[in-house]
């Protein structure tokens, strides 16, 4: 987790919900840190401390963890878009809150941040970060905890932890960009622009700033349209497989396939594929359909044995 001087607290915007504890009433400007709304299977989570450039304090850590734990338990959520209000995605950790604190408090504060990042990373729903402006320290950790990230062209990354006399970002960063590149960024505290972040895999795409929200919505619509169990199992198989060797990884994937088969939802995917190939007419036989032997009429790119170019392994 990085440290960045926070200029102060923010005033929440109108017309949005916040992530305060249910039943606690509407929090004032000092307590709103994360906003969340869910519609049509898409959860939109926003860091909401713009006057402080979304600097992470203890309250934000607790809110972020609670929001993602709630989303993980909500079966209506298919995908999460994680963005931020104001000119910067996240300026790092709020050092001001540490003034006058002892080491025990700082230790608990760091543990709270780790729990928040972990809640983002462990969410069963795909999490897509939409980043812009400055992404410093803790902002980088949040970005790396998401499944992938899309960046506006003005995005810059910096990891200043060691230069603030602390340690952070030493684990997720190296797992994404490699040990030597991570050391270079951590040791030097240099600014990494969006195009370099894309080259290294920190973000997967860079778009003009005025296209960032739309790009996120398009990605969310694509993910939300997929069968939710298959999507959740795909995420889990990738995450668990990355922690082991290929042989065990294949076993993890096979176990996921068995869960899909037991659920039966895979048949809906096959039916949707057939309808799409059939021009929406459904059924078999006739132009564009199948011939009863499982093969197509020769215009759909099959191999003559009932398989298609999009056949599942």
What does the model show?
It is globular and about 65 Å long. The longest helix has 20 residues. The two termini are 40 Å apart. The chain is built from 10 helices and 11 strands. The protein is an alpha/beta fold and 313 residues long. The strands form 3 sheets. The protein has a 6-stranded mixed beta sheet, with helices on both faces. A 3-stranded mixed beta sheet has the order 7-9-10. The chain has a two-stranded parallel sheet with strand order 1-5.
Poorly predicted spans: 1-28, 282-313
Order of helices and strands: EEEHEEHEEHEEHHEHEHHHH
Count every beta strand, where a strand is a DSSP E run of 2 or more residues.
11
N- to C-terminal distance: 40 Å
The profile of the biggest β sheet is: 6 strands, mixed
The amount of beta strand, in percent, is 5-15%
Strand numbers in spatial order across the main sheet: 2-3-4-6-8-11
How helical, in percent, are the residues? Answer: 25-40%
Radius of gyration: 22 Å
Q: Helix- and strand-based class?
A: alpha/beta
* Average pLDDT number: 83
Number of helices: 10
Coarse morphology: globular
Q: How are the secondary structure elements laid out?
A:
Layout: E1 3-4, E2 34-39, E3 42-47, H1 58-73, E4 79-84, E5 93-94, H2 103-122, E6 127-131, E7 134-136, H3 138-145, E8 148-152, E9 156-158, H4 172-177, H5 179-188, E10 192-193, H6 194-200, E11 205-207, H7 212-224, H8 228-241, H9 246-263, H10 266-277
Key descriptive features of the protein:
313 residues, alpha/beta, six-stranded mixed β-sheet, three-stranded mixed β-sheet, 11 strands, disordered C terminus
């Amino acid at each position: 987790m990085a440290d960045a001087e926070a200029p102060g607290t923010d005033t929440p915007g109108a017309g949005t919900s916040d992530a305060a504890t249910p039943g606690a009433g509407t929090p004032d400007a000092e307590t709103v840190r994360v906003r969340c709304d869910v519609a049509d299977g898409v959860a939109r989570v926003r860091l909401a401390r713009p006057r402080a450039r979304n600097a992470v304090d203890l309250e934000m850590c607790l809110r972020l963890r609670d929001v993602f734990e709630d989303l993980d338990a909500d079966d209506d959520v298919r995908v999460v878009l994680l963005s931020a209000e104001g000119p910067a995605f996240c300026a790092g950790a709020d050092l001001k809150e540490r003034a006058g604190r002892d080491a025990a408090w700082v230790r608990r504060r760091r543990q709270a941040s780790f729990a928040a990042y972990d809640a983002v990373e462990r969410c069963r729903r795909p999490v897509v970060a939409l980043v812009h402006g400055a992404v410093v320290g803790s902002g980088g950790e949040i970005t790396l905890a998401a499944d992938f990230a899309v960046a506006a062209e003005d995005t810059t990354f910096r990891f200043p932890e060691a230069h603030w006399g602390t340690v952070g970002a030493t684990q997720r960063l190296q797992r994404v960009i490699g040990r030597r590149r991570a050391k270079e960024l951590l040791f030097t505290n240099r600014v990494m622009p969006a195009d370099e972040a894309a080259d290294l895999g920190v973000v997967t795409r860079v778009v003009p700033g005025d296209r960032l929200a739309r790009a996120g919505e398009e990605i969310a619509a694509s993910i939300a349209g997929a069968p939710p169990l298959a999507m959740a199992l795909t995420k889990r198989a990738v995450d668990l497989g990355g922690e082991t060797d290929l042989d065990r990884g294949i076993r993890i994937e096979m176990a996921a396939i068995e869960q899909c088969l037991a659920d039966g939802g895979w048949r809906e995917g096959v039916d949707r594929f057939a309808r799409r190939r059939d021009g929406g007419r459904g059924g078999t036989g006739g132009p564009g359909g199948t011939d009863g032997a499982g093969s197509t009429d020769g215009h759909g790119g099959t191999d003559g044995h009932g398989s298609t170019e999009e056949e599942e392994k």
